[in-house]
Amino acid sequence: SNRIGEVDDYVEGQWIPTGCSGCTSWCSKEANVVNGRVIKVRGNKNSKVNGEVSCPRAHLSLQQLYDPDRIKQPMKRTNPDKGRDVDPDFVPISWDEAMEEIADKILELREQDENHKIAVQRGRYTQLRDIIYSHVPAILGTPNNISHSSICAEAEKFGPYYTEGYWNYRDFDVLNSEYIILWGADPIASNRQISYYLGVWPDVLDKAKVAVIEPRLSASATKAHEWLPVKPAEDGALAVAMAHVILTQGLWNKEFVGDFHDGENRFIPGKTVDEETFEENYTHGLVKWWNLELKDRTPEWAEARSGVPRSQIIRVATEFAEKAPKALVWMGGGPVMQVRGGYTSMAISALNGLVGSVDSEGGTLRGAGVPRKSYPAPDEYMDENAQEKINYQKIDQRGYLEFPALKEGKPGSGVVTNRMADGILKEDPYDIKMIMAYWNNFAFSAPEARRWEEALKKVDFIVHMVTHESEMTRYADIVLPSTHHMFEQWGFLNQKGNKHTHLWLARPMIERFFDVKDPEAEVQWLLAEKLAEKGFDKLLEHFKNFKDPETEKEPTNEIEFAEYATKLTLQPIWDPNEYESGDQFDGWEDFKAVGVWNSDEYKYKQYWDNFGTKTDKYEFYSETLKDALEKHAANHNLTVDEVLEACKYEAEGEVAFIPHYDPPFVHGQKEEYPFMFVDFKNRLNREGRSANCYWYHEFNDINPGLEKEKDVALLNPKDADEYGIKTDDKIIIKSPVGEIECYAKLWEGIPPGVVAKAYGQGHWAYGRVASENFDRGIPRGGNNNEILVADYERLSGSTAFYSHTRVRVEKS
Amino acid sequence: MTKYAMVIDLHRCTGCGACAITCKIENNVPRGFRWADYIHETKGEFPNVTYTYIPTLCNHCDHAPCVEVCPTDPKAMYKTEHGLTLHDSKECIGCRQCEDACPYGVVYFNSEKAHEFWRDGKAQEVVNKISKENDVIPPYYNPNRARTYAGIRPPDIVEKCTFCDHLIIEGKLPYCVEQCPSGARYFGDKEDENDLVNQMLKEYMSKRLKEYKGTEPNVYYIRDYNKNA
Fold this sequence. Notes:
The structure holds two protein chains of two kinds.
Chain A: E1 14-19, E2 28-34, E3 37-43, H1 61-65, E4 75-76, E5 91-92, H2 95-111, E6 118-122, H3 130-140, E7 145-146, H4 154-164, E8 171-172, E9 179-183, H5 194-207, E10 209-213, H6 219-222, E11 226-228, H7 235-248, H8 254-257, E12 258-260, E13 278-280, E14 283-284, H9 286-292, H10 299-306, H11 310-322, E15 327-331, H12 341-354, E16 364-365, H13 384-389, H14 420-425, E17 434-438, H15 442-445, H16 449-458, E18 461-466, E19 478-481, E20 491-497, E21 500-506, H17 522-533, H18 538-543, H19 558-569, H20 571-574, H21 588-594, E22 596-598, E23 618-619, H22 623-635, H23 640-646, E24 675-681, H24 694-698, E25 712-715, H25 717-722, E26 730-735, E27 738-746, E28 754-759, E29 771-773, E30 778-779, E31 792-793, E32 798-799, E33 806-811
Parallel strand pairs in A: 6-7, 6-17, 9-10, 9-15, 10-11, 14-23, 17-18, 18-19, 24-28, 25-27
Antiparallel strand pairs in A: 1-2, 2-3, 4-5, 4-19, 8-16, 12-13, 20-21, 21-22, 24-33, 25-28, 26-27, 26-33, 29-30, 31-32
Chain B: E1 4-9, H1 18-27, E2 37-45, E3 48-56, H2 65-69, E4 77-79, E5 85-87, H3 97-101, E6 108-109, H4 121-130, E7 158-159, H5 165-168, H6 175-179, E8 185-189, H7 196-203, E9 206-207, E10 219-222
Parallel strand pairs in B: 1-10
Antiparallel strand pairs in B: 1-8, 2-3, 4-5, 6-7, 9-10
């Protein structure tokens, strides 16, 4: 019987294109706007990367947008004391008053010839970032634009760059692959292109065998064919042993790598090979690699270190290589964002080289470029002082002996984000007097987070531009409330997946219900206006060149500036007269309506003839790394061996230029700290920014092993028994640098000797849901970054996050 | 006649929870309730461990114990001619017998006013600013839910999954089906040979939860979350 009777019309509302920056998947989205409210989000079907598919955490953006704890208006600190337990006594001020304070401080520092002591910090971003991150510091005259990149991934880029000349994340041709090794990557749960991989993973599992190498039973491991629970930090041993197996069994890809002249396999365990007997095709240094490293890296040797049975190492390596070249290794951050992870990054990457799956069908792919127009250059608006000072040493100490940060082969060119705190604390190379920071929270998101609290205390004047008051905001002098990137501002980002690169466009789609502004463009315009009012007009004059490309109109306010800047740089995408590649549009309005541009489909083997390395070949013996290390050594009048020692590596001589096993470097003695600590990422993390959404806690149990409404550390039941710990006990986890409190959860998906905990909780200043007691600053759960030691994979500048800290556990 | 059923392909399920979260959004489901839920289980000892995950929801049983026990006249919990088990919030007296009778634990009782989180002073400030009507609690409130059910269910009555009947009548799919990122859910007419649900049930062995209870559920599961498990 139908009891419902007449029903109201269905309210469709409008579906407005946007994109999500809740993680670096950067999926296209559409938001459903009904009567001026956003009520749903979904994937934008026009994307050839993720299409209509949306991951679970994107939906939490609704609770972020309407969070009652968002900052409502600009605020100013009235209590000069700074500290965790000190109330900043923020008072509301107008945007004009806020700009007044900031402009005065900038001009004071310029007056005192200390403008290089102004730092700009960037966390998450849209690609409108160039304005705040590049143009503003250049014209103010400071070298200190410091991004978050090396607390994100740089060691992940290190291996691919120093083998195949590609400093970036990659795309994986999973639908054409027949064997996939997920090495510390968890594509159905976290980074990258999660939406896309959630959509295709069932089909991938039908076609390919999937092996997961990861100490804990990850989400992807729960569905995989093989799980290799490697001992934390011993990934390098496993990687070189797999290479050993592939070579001794003659399973390398002959087309890509080449072969012995007479076809006889001379890769015999323990025996060196005459380089002259082997002819390589697209690679360089295979025999050197064998002789220097691989010949002794037997599966037996690796079993003893990695804890993975010899038989499993042989089986996985063999089956993987038998599928060559349609076999790929997908490397994540876990195995390589470790103190000695740089060479592990090379060793894992090099497996793709051995099976010839680099830049190849069913293998690892690069992404397509995005046609963009450069913004007008700031150069002519930089005075002499600025020209000189942007070349000063940066505060993150990149380029120091112990921080080579060899981005793309250039010493000192990569960021060492987490080192900035030490730079500030030690005033080395100088003190920092002002920070303008946006969309970041280093006092929560960077290991040994408390150092940041001390460092921030030392800085006279901090401007924090964020949606929520957070740990870092507690040290701010001026707080500027930010728009939500998906719904309230202009922005765009590009990302690769499914053999395409897409770029999506976000735009203001609802009325702002609080007095918020976009930090990347709008706030910078207001600042430029205020500086001009006070006699420094270079920034504003520069910004006036950001004209609407259709009307040639100069921007007259912050809203126009943000829109024109977006439109200007994306002109080759939407303007048919400037068309370069990929999807075509009839103009700005057409592109706005579609909301996403797609590149043409990726073409295989684009780089085989020129990988962009020193030798143009795929390098098993990295001439590219040798050159970079020698340059860095020369900068310090030292040898490469001395550089490696300063960077905490054991490698000496030629081993420094090949993928090799360097034994793990771990903080804390086993006697005092019996457990290895394994950090992992919660499926619902919007990078530590979703903890004030109650759905985040309500659905915490969609992460294998975790519990709803609780922050738990995972322990193997055998270990827990030994310590008398039971599930739901409150425990304290102590490391050499700090301690946190959370609940215990006994779980068989964790190896004995390991404590694993998801990052994301433990906020003491993010809002009422994220904290146990927001007013009193009591955290809900524990922040892993309070126990992780601040250390680095120094060759890339990457912060170490994984398997480098030992802990002990006590009942609290 | 149309007989609605859902097929969940556990091989396609990635255990991500998007069904459970998006259900909350579509149906304005309060904190703590899960019309769409999941059961997970870890078995074995390290390193021989398996983890399985089964998404759950109201089974819209042919022999629905919740309907059988409903004491009101007409029954607040009732079956439609197309096999949906629906709840009439106006008839419900909050006796909770359906909640006790349901073998699957998918009937929820509102002991307090729903969405308390969005009713305090701070949240009310947001609500007031985004709507002149002051009635959008939560702020992302979906008005379409109110087409066939209380948009938000009042205190002292129960609530449950309706297979998104307000979307079905529009020719749309239940929201958990539409939003499943892995394409693990199918919804349709199991009596119609041209319907994918019908075809799936022919092609694959299927199982239902607690079949021994004799409830004849209309949510079917095919394949395995992990063959090794």
